[in-house]
Amino acid sequence: MPKVLIIDDDMTFQTVMSAKLKEKGYETDLALNGAAGLLKMAESRPDVILLDIMMPKLDGIGFLKQLQADRPSDTKIPVFITSNLNDLDKVSEGAELGVRGYIVKSDESLDTIVSAIDSVCHSPKEEK
Amino acid sequence: MILAIITALSIALALGGAGTSIYFYIKDKKAKEVLEKREQDVSRRMFELAILKELGDRIGYSLDVQQIVDIITGSLHQFIEYAAVSYMLIGPENVIFKIHLERSVHQRFVNEIRDRMLGSLSALLDREFDKKDVKEIVSGAIIIEELDEPVSSFFNIPLVIDEKVVGVLTVADTKSGLYKEEEMTILYKIIQQASKAVTSLQGVVKAEQAKVNAMVESMADGVVMTDTDYRILVANPSVRQVIGLSNKKDITIFDFIDNLEGKFDIRGRLEESVKLNKPFKSEDVLIRDNFYKIFVFPVTTSVPGTPDEKNVVGGVVIFHDVSAERSVEQIRQQFTSMIVHELRTPLSGINKISELLRAGPTKVGKKEYAEYVRMISSDSAGMLNLVNDILDVAKLEAGKFDVKKQPTDLKAVIANRIDFFTPSAEDAKLSLKVAYDKELPPMVPLDELAIKQVLNNLLSNAIKFTKAGGIVEVFALHHAAGGAITDELARLKDAPTLALAPEQLASAPESVIVAVSDTGGGISEAGMKELFNKYKQLQTTSETGMKGTGLGLAIAKGVVEEHGGFIGVVSEQGVGSVFYFVLPLAQSTQ
């Protein structure tokens, strides 16, 4: 079962997203901020990461930079930024750090987010 | 024109005087002499007045000596007879010799006057002058070679301004014996008065200039003034700072052009302003980390008699630093976008939950269903709190936050809040304690709802920011006017973790002090300053990652101040914090 790591301090989003993903046959792992996310990465390797931007302790951009520095092999894991911020600066910053997509949470349905994950997980190029 | 009117008036007076004098001639010959003398006096005084008035009007604040002498010489003919009037002034590069001919004379006549004047200038100043340095200007009647008449009458007066000889003035004629004592006296007087007027005017202008200079020097705004050729006349310390040349001695327009790095076309704007005689105001311009609004004005002097015609003599550029205003504006914008984000997050959460619930009751498990409902209620409660806080802040800002003080049992209010927060303290594994001073008055004038709001805020913060195993304690004590806070604290059963800073309370009147202490991480000194500022709050995050709207403390401050009291905090990093508020006991005006 492909595993999705949700790094987000919004517990409601974590809960509902995780419920939806489980329903679609995914396994999920949860982290409340970037720092906790990095710890989770050390425990087990997810197949996809959903990453919020504004979080306490270590924000989404900080998480991506730290990941590049600490675990360069993990940068192959597709990352989707899921944020309520519709901020072009952050989009370009994320793009520079190699993220697959930028999803404005409040604008997209859970189904849309799931189909975005489907598109990278079922791709034959990606390792299971 | 003014001169013409006054001259006409003096003629009228003279005629009037003459008419009267005929009558007196019949009566008494002696009286006639007296009157003739008076006539002359009046006429002369009018003339002097006219010249002085003309001086004042035409010259204004211009201190151009040449211009002044021009006026004197131009008016002199009405009173003194001469073939030529001339002046010689010492200029920076040459000696100006200007001669006006009333009648045609021979060139030798002109030369003789020139040489004589040069001679007296040399004598006056004890200095040799070369004929080559004399710049000669001849006006009036033409030179006729056949009229070879020598200078037979010659009268020379030194021009003295501010006790310094600046030149000489001469009247000369081909007729002999012209300049007698009376004419000389008058001429002396005119020159003397004009020089006195100019000297005192110079003094006034110098004083004014010193005042203006001092003002410009001390101005916070950068000021630079140039002439029409963009030579820098004034550049005050502030403007030197703007372009980062505080220590450079001679600043030129090129220093400005180079150091403004193309962000502001100072020369172009000056040119436009000077040529079109039009002021200019820029948008905010970023120069070396600061934002400036830049103003450009033409500098004009008005020419009297022609009020519409302004003479542009240069331009001034003012750099007004707007960085502070901009940073406030920026903080405000950040605050607004944070609020929007804080509202959008729970709203989007609720929206997502509804998406899950839409699958229908059979698809959602009972446990999940209960969880979703709990989340909806907590998310919406969060939004409601935020909206209420924003409204309270808005009301406090507008002065419309109504505080209705009534004698209230403060102990009961505190106890009520302790009960309310006990469950969340238990959840966070904290012990929540309370201590009352036995001298606490039974009734305290306060607005119960508003003070509950303050306590809610202080208590929820204390619980949020204290780790499991910590202690949160509320204590209330009576403070006597001038009482020692340490003695008052000693009356409490459990001493609070941090002593209240006595100096902060020293000047308080008789009051009650309510404090909430915690054993949390404490607040940095920099953090304390921003604590009660509503725009600086939203980024605070608790130990557990919980977010607050951060408006609570700003509201609490407003509420306490509406009660006539004040709010404060003492904190030590690694030990904890004590937030306290002071409510005065005396019924204030409200």
Task: Describe the fold and architecture.
The complex is a heterodimer of chains A (128) and B (590). By secondary structure, chain A is an alpha/beta fold. Chain A has a single domain, classed as 3-Layer(aba) Sandwich (Rossmann fold), CATH 3.40.50. In chain A, 43% of the residues lie in helices and 18% in strands. Chain A has a five-stranded parallel beta sheet with strand order 2-1-3-4-5, with helices on both faces. Chain B is of the alpha+beta class and 590 residues long. Helices cover 47% and strands 22% of the residues of chain B. Chain B has helices spanning 2-27, 29-59, 65-76, 107-125, 181-218, 237-242, 253-259, 266-276, 323-357, 366-397, 410-427, 448-464, 485-490, 502-505, 525-530, 552-562; strands at residues 84-90, 95-101, 134-140, 153-161, 164-173, 222-227, 232-235, 280-287, 290-302, 310-321, 406-408, 431-436, 444-446, 471-479, 511-518, 566-572, 576-584. In chain B, the strands form four sheets. A five-stranded mixed beta sheet of chain B has the order 3-2-1-5-4, sandwiched between helices. In chain B, strands 7-6-10-9-8 form a five-stranded antiparallel beta sheet, with helices on both faces. A five-stranded mixed beta sheet of chain B has the order 12-14-15-17-16. In chain B, β16 (566-572) and β17 form a beta hairpin. In chain B, α9 (323-357) packs antiparallel against α10. Chain B is elongated and about 130 Å long. Chain A binds chain B through residues 9-13, 15-17, 19-20, 32-33, 54, 56-57, 84-85, 105-106, 109-111, and chain B through 341, 344-353, 355-356, 368, 371-372, 375, 379, 541, 545, 547.
